[in-house]
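Progress note, sequence design subtask.
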């Protein structure tokens, strides 16, 4: 919700989310007052204080604001002024509100009384009041849930400091000692639960509530997971199986083949050939252990969980990095849980992440179509995988023994022969598996006469369902874009939208930015001048070129196009000069430029920050110890536009 209020002396623009309200304040003679406030420090934690001279100003001087919040449900009113000190900011955030509630803020100017050096703040003029209701993510088509993430690391330390412990941790393979407050290691179960809830900030609760909607056998759950070790999520899905819900989960399952080794050395077969064994990667192995750790009241439920719930995604071209859950009722897709959050302690309680519930049958259906294709474990970008419909004939033709076929391979073979799948699935399924298998496959004859099923790579299937986007989207449009894709056209699309920005860009980029984005970050605002001439010389998109003449007319007629452009970029960690030099050297060898943070950091439009912790004695901050690679920022969002009441911004959320 966004609303404004003005009493002629003070004005406020309030914007509410689910658990935060931002107040943008202004007063008459604001420039003069802002300069005065900037020169003063009433914070007794600062070691040096500099107060303006009384020779410059006589009489009462504005020194900040008093702000109080009233909860209309309880009638409780509290002051937001810590220790009674004036709030000396023109933008103030209240992070202690609850979702779906109405609040009233009372704002008043404060002066220092008669003398500039007076320590006592005195109210001046009539107070300004404004009402606002926070968003309720349990209602409507969209529910957005952010965890606490990095926003409260100092507050986390202050709140749970008694549980700080020294840990020897490994960072990029290097052992280091670090202070950690691990919520899982807090001895008192009540305190541990409180810490976990504080860090989750409603994200975990929303995820578990989403799964709990599947109450009986009339519901089905289809999920795709990368990291999968969060005990509460795994327990919730296992409980759904016990309730009779038909649950199917595609999980990342990658590894490498290594020589088989025993005590006496490398194992060889009778012909002297080295035998190999498949070793799962750590993500696959940890998920398997978490899956095996679950207990069940019913033996049949346990067998269903272990034998008929999980589908291994082995043939992706890279990582199967999905993290979504589809809720179906009576075989019809109803809702989807998506976002950047891996199903791990680190994803939910550690790094900053978002969970997004979409209550839309069309979008849920799009996810289900993608899930169905993914469940057959097709190749990503590589050539089509081949399986023979007559496995015994294929084995004799090759002269080699084949591994036992997986359920997916059996399903493909049965689909080719038009057979039912009752031998695979003991429980009724809501999707016609044979029809689904056949729809993503083509059948031809091998040289031996066997039927061969060639699966389309995921790139083909995805782009057939949703081609790359081209040009600005229509108002209020919602698009679902899956990966992998065969080209970088979608990166160019997002870069073009950034290039079009005239007022603001807000980007979270935990793993850095692509070259398409980096080129835009080197340039200036999309005003009439650079839209028509592209003077920065970096972006040469054909789509931008085709629309130049139209945009010049729009920019000239719209005064907001001349507004100052600001781009806010948030990284997970400080970019590395060593990594940058290495990337530039590789690109140079290939005859290509490489643009990164060290090139665009000084652009006047860019405001760049990254995750870090304070480590001095007075203000030390501690992490949870639940993350290994990404400590601070894992969510990927791009917001383009301006936050005004009458204008909607464009939001792009990247689920990875």
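Output:
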């Amino acid at each position: 919700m966004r609303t404004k209020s003005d009493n002629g002396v003070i004005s406020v623009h309030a914007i509410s989310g689910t658990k935060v309200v931002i107040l943008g304040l202004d007063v008459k003679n604001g420039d003069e007052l802002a300069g005065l406030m900037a020169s003063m420090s009433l914070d007794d934690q600062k070691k040096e204080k500099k107060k303006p001279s009384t020779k410059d100003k006589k009489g009462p001087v504005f020194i900040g604001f008093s702000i109080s919040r009233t909860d209309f449900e309880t009638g409780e009113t509290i002051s937001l002024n810590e220790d009674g000190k004036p709030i000396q900011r023109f933008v103030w955030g209240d992070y202690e509100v609850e979702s779906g509630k109405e609040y009233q803020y009372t704002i008043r100017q404060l002066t220092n009384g008669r003398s500039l050096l007076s320590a006592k703040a005195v109210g001046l003029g009539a107070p300004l009041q404004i009402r606002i209701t926070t968003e309720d993510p349990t209602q409507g088509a969209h529910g957005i849930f952010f965890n606490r993430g990095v926003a409260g690391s100092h507050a986390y330390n202050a709140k749970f400091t008694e549980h700080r412990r020294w840990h020897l941790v490994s960072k990029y393979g290097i052992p280091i000692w670090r202070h950690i407050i691990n919520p899982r290691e807090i001895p008192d179960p009540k305190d541990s639960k409180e810490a976990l809830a504080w860090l989750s900030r409603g994200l975990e609760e929303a995820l578990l509530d989403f799964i709990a909607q599947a109450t009986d056998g009339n519901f089905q759950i289809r999920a795709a997971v990368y990291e999968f070790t969060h005990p509460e999520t795994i327990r919730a899905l296992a409980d759904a199986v016990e309730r009779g819900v038909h649950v199917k989960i595609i999980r990342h399952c990658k590894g490498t083949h290594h020589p088989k080794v025993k005590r006496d050395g490398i194992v060889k077969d009778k012909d002297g050939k080295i035998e190999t064994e498949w070793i799962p990667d750590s993500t696959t192995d940890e998920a398997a252990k978490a899956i095996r750790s679950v207990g069940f009241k019913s033996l049949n439920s346990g067998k269903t969980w272990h034998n008929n719930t999980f589908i291994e995604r082995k043939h992706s071209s890279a990582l199967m990095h999905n993290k979504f859950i589809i809720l179906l009722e009576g075989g019809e897709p109803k809702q989807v849980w998506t976002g950047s959050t891996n199903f791990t302690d680190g994803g939910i309680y550690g790094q900053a992440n978002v969970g997004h519930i979409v209550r839309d049958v069309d979008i849920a259906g799009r996810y289900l179509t993608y899930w169905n294709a993914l469940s057959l474990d097709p190749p990503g970008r590589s050539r089509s995988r081949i399986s023979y419909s007559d496995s015994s004939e294929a084995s004799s033709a090759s002269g080699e023994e084949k591994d036992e076929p997986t359920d997916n391979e059996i399903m493909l073979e049965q689909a080719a022969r038009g057979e039912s799948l009752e031998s695979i699935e003991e429980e009724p399924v809501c999707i016609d598996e044979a029809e689904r298998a056949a729809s993503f496959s083509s059948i031809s004859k091998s040289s031996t006469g066997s039927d061969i099923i060639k699966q389309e790579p995921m790139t083909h299937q995805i782009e057939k369902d949703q081609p790359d986007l081209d040009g600005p989207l229509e108002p209020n449009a919602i698009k679902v874009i899956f990966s992998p894709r065969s080209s970088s056209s979608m990166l160019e699309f997002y870069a073009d939208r950034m290039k079009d920005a005239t007022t603001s860009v807000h980007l979270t980029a935990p793993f850095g930015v692509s070259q398409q984005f980096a080129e835009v970050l080197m340039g200036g605002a999309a005003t009439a001048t650079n839209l028509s001439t592209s003077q920065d010389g970096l972006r040469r998109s054909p789509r931008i070129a085709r629309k130049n003449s139209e945009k010049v007319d729009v920019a000239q007629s719209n005064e907001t196009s001349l507004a100052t452009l600001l781009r806010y970029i948030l990284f997970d960690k400080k970019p590395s000069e060593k990594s940058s030099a290495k990337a530039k050297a590789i690109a140079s060898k290939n005859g290509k430029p490489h643009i990164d943070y060290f090139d665009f950091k000084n652009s006047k439009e860019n405001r760049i920050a990254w995750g870090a912790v304070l480590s001095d004695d007075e203000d030390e901050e501690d992490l949870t110890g639940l993350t290994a690679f990404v400590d601070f920022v894992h969510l990927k969002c791009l917001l383009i536009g301006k936050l005004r009441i009458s204008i909607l911004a464009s939001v792009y959320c990247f689920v990875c």
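The first helix runs from residue 30 to 38. Work on this subtask will continue into the next period as scheduled.
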